[in-house]
Design a protein that fits this description.
The chain is α+β, with helices and mostly antiparallel strands and 797 residues long. Helices cover 32% and strands 24% of the residues. One of its GO terms (molecular function) is hydrolase activity.
Length: 797
């Protein structure tokens, strides 16, 4: 649908030497959304977060963000680039351009417009320089990816050696694709639109000689939302080449199974997948392709229902865990990353536009309050990468001009579009999706609507027609967290008959007049949700608001990250899981009923249930907990289960003692004295530490080995300790005195972030008459050994 904007009486002179009219709306890709400039945030937590984020954005140096682009175009950078996350050099620049456009549209802040236009001028210079200097591969190119010339010149010829050894080139470029699109979409820059389409043409020309099989192999690497931007280009222009490109950049490894309702997401990198499905849904929207539509819809269903935590986020160690590995959410400290929720909200908006069901708005609300809002520090505005669900752990925050993580880039955008989904429209129908203080200027209908609320601190909202008269259907969301029959609506103080149920929309068809007031009662109750696949861990809610509890501030190492490569990890001491609070109740379902409101503190609750390992803290909205360790999920047990739990700890200790009795010899790998005592030999071998335990591994043509005593016994096995989650598959051989005992391929191992012991029985023929044996670990060609945490020679049971 094309929406024609009314012209404002302000003429702005652009940096490109031409003038244009800043209009109030322009042709949009997202036909159900109101222009950001037509939705004004009123005082409240979201406006505060948006304004704080704007002050953070202005602390970044635009010339430093642009340096990678000038460098790759053969132009002298005006200032040195930011050093953090070298290898993805340039990815932040695209996010920053999007954030400038969004915040300018939402606030009319002229500094953001000036910075946006300056970036466009500089980027256009880079695009023209690439076109001139590299006509064989660079026409239309505007990327800052390191060593672009060597990479793309060979890539175009079908040589993927440099591409496969690089860190996600198309993922990087997608951020600038999106930045240019957003500068047009939100800020009406025709120059940005021209640059965007030129860049799209570059991506078509670059890949036109690749076979279908070659293209699919390219897509095995993370490539961001490339299908999305080509679907956008098709919608902008109507040119079929862009739709064909969108489908050509679609990864069939996940498209085909998910379109058939087959979830093959286990152990896949989560945020590699989510943007693909944003693209699939956009293709379905602009082309009506049922396969793409089914893939987008089913992906959303399985991720939100089966793979998401209480606050709306998903993944651990950046990957989707299998059912058996879901305990990693408790054991690991790198929980869901913010980027995932950024992209899941984009997918949710796209699905809602095609099918405006309340379930999408319910998920959107949950994730907006409990994840997105929580990832901004309320004082300095730093962004969060990982949000651990591990009991009594904490989050790390970025600092401007230091950390340049992916979640810094998406964080720049997150807080600039809080007004994007409060209101939407389907034709002449108005949808009220979120209860956020704001004012809508619906130009087409000639009305203004003001929403005043202190939700969620109060259980209701009020809508007032402040200008105009119009007849249209108003659809009010009946949230899924309200009990059936409890939502109440009054129009001009008169209660209306409500036809609706939880997680639906209530339709009010009326000729609306200036001064009409709609009062909505939104009763909130306490409830709990269980951790996916680990039901003994529960989280508490009041309405849609996740409740957490601060649990101390000891050892918050790296709370504000430096510019180190892995500064985003919360690396302070992991407090023991078995010493975290445990809630006891005869019936776990009764736990929410035992929460007691704290007087004069909205959304604060005392836990009145029996608690082992207690902490002295009340529950409060998770998004308000900062600079602290916290409890999000609580182990909940009946008294009988608790007795079994303590018995299991005793059994674990008994098994440890029994294993010691079976052990003939033991090597603590990675530790100097034990390795020296066992006459270690090594080549291309290294050590490290994980969970306070040392390991050793080898790579390439390397190896490591130890001499271990046998006491001339037979009937022995070699026990090794691995860590279940490994990055990539490892293939290696284990030898006893240069005779191969077994070959190991970790692809067959359980991918769970816990230590695991595996035993390999040693044939007696390898042991007969020997006082000692040499145990050797050697990688297969092109691979590496696992990280080995200890070796034991043990008697078979």
């Amino acid at each position: 649908m094309i929406v024609i904007k009314k012209i404002k009486a302000v003429i702005l002179f652009g940096v490109f030497g031409f003038s244009f009219l800043k209009v109030s709306a322009q042709e949009k890709l997202y036909t159900n959304e109101f222009p950001l400039e037509n939705v004004t945030l009123l005082d409240g937590k979201f406006k505060n977060a948006r304004d704080l984020n704007m002050s953070v954005l202005l602390q970044y140096d635009v010339d430093r963000l642009l340096a990678p682009y000038r460098k790759e175009a053969g132009l002298e950078p005006r200032k040195p680039s930011y050093p953090n996350w070298e290898g993805l050099d340039g990815h932040i620049g695209g996010h920053y351009l999007s954030a400038l456009a969004m915040n300018y549209a939402a606030t009319d802040n002229q500094e953001f417009l000036a910075r946006m236009n300056y970036m466009l001028k500089e980027l256009r210079e880079c695009q023209l320089a690439n076109t001139k200097k590299h006509p064989e591969w660079g026409v239309g190119y505007v990327g800052g990816f390191p060593n672009s010339e060597a990479l793309w010149s060979s890539f175009k010829k079908g040589n993927f050696e440099k591409y496969n050894s690089a860190w996600a080139p198309f993922y990087n470029l997608h951020k600038m694709y999106a930045g240019l699109r957003d500068a047009w979409l939100y800020a009406d820059s025709e120059k940005a639109k021209e640059m965007f389409l030129d860049f799209c043409d570059w991506g078509i020309t670059l890949t036109k000689d690749l076979s279908h099989e070659q293209m699919q192999s390219v897509l095995n690497m993370e490539h961001g939302g490339m299908p999305e931007v080509y679907a956008d280009a098709y919608q902008i222009t109507g040119e079929k080449k862009y739709l064909e490109a969108a489908k050509r950049y679609s990864h069939e490894q996940v498209l085909h199974p998910l379109s058939k309702g087959i979830d093959n997401l286990d152990n896949k990198h989560a945020n590699t997948q989510i943007p693909k499905f944003v693209g699939f849904e956009r293709i379905a929207e602009v082309d009506g392709d049922e396969k793409f539509a089914k893939a987008g819809s089913y992906f959303w269903e399985t991720v939100t229902k089966n793979r998401s935590l209480a606050f709306g986020g998903n993944s651990r160690k950046e990957h989707f865990p299998s059912t058996s590995a879901s305990i990693d959410y408790i054991n690991e400290d790198d929980g869901p990353e913010s980027c995932n929720s950024y992209n899941m909200l984009k997918l949710t908006e796209d699905l809602f536009r095609v099918n405006p069901e309340a379930k999408y708005a319910d998920y959107y609300e949950r994730t907006l309050y409990n994840h997105i809002l929580s990832t901004q520090h309320p004082q300095h505005g730093g962004y969060v990468y990982f949000t651990p669900a591990r009991p009594r752990h904490y989050r790390i925050y970025s600092a401007p001009e230091e950390a340049m993580w992916c979640c810094v880039g998406t964080g720049m955008e997150n807080h600039g579009k809080y007004n994007q989904f409060i209101y939407t429209h389907q034709g002449d129908s108005l949808y009220i999706n979120l209860f956020i203080p704001s004012e809508l200027n619906w130009e087409k209908q000639g009305v203004k609507i003001r929403q005043e609320t202190n939700f969620p601190s109060e259980e209701g909202t009020s809508l007032k027609i402040t200008e105009g008269t119009a007849e249209f259907p108003l659809f009010l969301r009946y949230p899924g967290w309200i009990k059936e029959g409890e939502m109440k609506i009054k129009i001009n103080s008169e209660e209306i008959e409500l036809i609706g149920k939880p997680s639906s929309y209530v339709k009010i068809d009326r000729n609306w007049q200036k001064g009409d007031i709609v009062d909505v009662s939104l009763p909130m109750h306490n409830h709990m949700e269980r951790l996916p696949n680990v039901p003994q861990y529960v989280a508490f809610f009041h309405g849609p608001i996740l409740l957490g509890a601060p649990s101390g501030s000891e050892d918050l190492k790296g709370l504000i990250a430096d510019d180190s490569r892995f500064g985003q990890y919360p690396s302070g001491r992991r407090l023991p899981i078995n010493e975290a609070p445990i809630l006891l109740a005869d019936h776990t379902e009764e736990l929410p009923e035992n929460l007691e409101s704290v007087e004069n503190e909205p959304l604060h609750f005392k836990i009145n249930s029996e608690m082992k390992n207690p902490i002295d803290a009340d529950l409060q909205p998770f998004y308000t907990i900062h600079d602290s360790r916290y409890m999000m999920y609580w182990l909940s047990l009946t008294p009988e289960e608790y007795e079994s739990y303590t018995d299991s700890l005793a059994n674990i200790e008994a098994k440890k003692l029994a294993l010691e009795k079976r052990t003939i010899d033991y090597v603590a790998t990675g530790e100097q004295q034990p390795e020296s005592d066992h006459f270690m030999e090594k080549k291309n071998s290294g050590t490290g530490n994980n969970r306070d335990e040392f390991w050793r591994s080898a790579h390439g043509d390397g190896y490591f080995s130890y001499q271990m005593k046998t006491n001339k016994e037979t009937g022995l096995s070699l026990m090794l300790r691995y860590f279940g989650f490994e990055w990539g598959d490892k293939r290696f051989d284990i030898y006893i005195d240069d005779e191969r005992l077994t070959s190991v391929n970790t692809k067959e191992h359980t991918r769970i972030s816990q230590f695991q012991e595996m035993s390999y029985e040693i044939p007696d023929s390898m042991l007969d008459g020997k006082k000692s044996i040499r145990v050797k670990f050697q990688p297969r060609e092109g691979s590496a050994t696992s990280e080995i945490y200890f070796l034991r020679l043990i008697r078979n049971q």
